[in-house]
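Researcher: Hi, I'm a grad student and pretty new to this. My advisor asked me to get structures for two proteins we've been looking at. I'm not sure of the right format, so I'll just paste the first sequence and hope you can take it from there.
Model: That works fine. Here's the first sequence with its structure tokens right after it:
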Amino acid sequence: MSKRAKTKPQKAKIDADHPLYGVIEKAYSVFKCPPPASAHVTCCEFCLRPERERALLCENQRDIPFDCLHDWYFASMAPDVPQSLWRFLFPRILEVLAAGEDLAGMSGIEVTFSCRFQVGDRSRWSEKEWSVIEEFRLELLNNITLEDGFNGSFEDAMLLFVLAGWEEQVLFDQLWQWDTEKLVQHMNQYWSIIRHDGTIKRSPWISTFWPDKELARSFFLSSRMYDRLVAYGTAEDTPAPLAQQALEVADMIYWELGCVEGIQTA
């Protein structure tokens, strides 16, 4: 009796209990289309070997291998990828991002939606397609955790959309709607650097990827953010560890911009 070969589980797939499962299923339905004839690679076969290109352009978009998609992101190609190719790959790209994996490598997750195709150009999409993209934006950022949020960086997730064409204020407004507890935890983690001796250095880091870095600073390092954190940190019902984090983050904001914006400590 012959033994059946075991199928290796695909990387970067999500299960039905994943918080983004619903929107990913919508994406596979709305963006369903046949594979295009070419992966649009313009260099040599070493960028994307023929057998890997065939695997990439498989019949079922759900079966696109992660490693082939990763190779495609590193391959040399013309600046603007045809919409037919992007539409075919797009739902699998969304699932990879939902699974917390990075496709753009050293460039960072921030450029995933902009280095091959400008996802935020609404004129490229139908109303139904855009609705799924917007739902994905909301769900991705709102469900980032301290453990799997692209190394804890909610800012990288925001930049994923900003660099692809979304207005910065749209992402600032979404982040502002977070529970203060979640906002404190993420800002505290992102602005904390663990030294070699185990001590923690805190610094208000603002990514250089922001198209308008001063606009980003005016959101994160503002009297509005300071007031919200201080109010949370001094509230009687705030757990002591969270209160300490909130006040430490607020203190960083104070020392960065206190003399500029006239922030007054109690």
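Researcher: Oh nice, that was easy. Here's the second one.
Model: And its structure:
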Amino acid sequence: MRNLFYGFAALTLTLTLFAPSAMAGALSWMKDHKDQYIDLYSGSTGYESGRVTATITHHSLFGGRQSTDNRKVDFAPSNVFGARWGFWLEENPLYGFAIDISYQTIKGENVKIHLLPISGMFFLRYPWHTTEKYPHGRIQPYGGIGLSFLTANITVDFTPDVPDVVSGTGEGMGVDLRAGLKWMLTEKIGVFTEWRYLQGNLCIKDEADILPPFTWSDTTEEASTSVGSQQLLFGISVTL
């Protein structure tokens, strides 16, 4: 408990000393980089079929046993919602970077996944119909590629082949591809449509120790799958 108190005190002191300067630096950076934007979007997504594996392994002083099942699962179409913050380089405004976060629920037979991808993206745009009012183009075709950190809550029910429901929080990495078209309604507000392809792998592993008198046991629950989806998105973009 004393170590926890000291750790909390050290964290509080660090934030007190450095948070104001970090915030000031961030505000100064944002002031110097004017071509920033925030996107909000939603759309529909279709999924590729995936192989889902669920395994429960039990070890004790009296031996061990393992139950596993691997099935091909067809996932139903669903909706996706997301937001993105990004900026275009001042020295070359054709290129930009963004952080994108979205949410979707993936459902298949006896499988449910609440997926939260966080993607770091590199974008390239083309200025079309440029004017003095719209120096970067009234219409802007663009494309992007990035890496996505996937976090998900996964529930797999393959009973009775696997004796219990396997559930937990899993992580993984994936690839995120984008292609879209933005139309600027005003100098600050635009609308866009976008195609997205997301591909990645997810896995969970949960270990539980049970220590009743005079015995010892360990149970490990594991699940893994791949996620592949194509999405059609519509959104609004606000230049800051």
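Researcher: Is there anything I should tell my advisor about the second?
Model: You could mention this: The beta strands are 36-47, 50-60, 63-73, 78-88, 95-108, 111-125, 139-156, 166-184, 189-210, 217-239.
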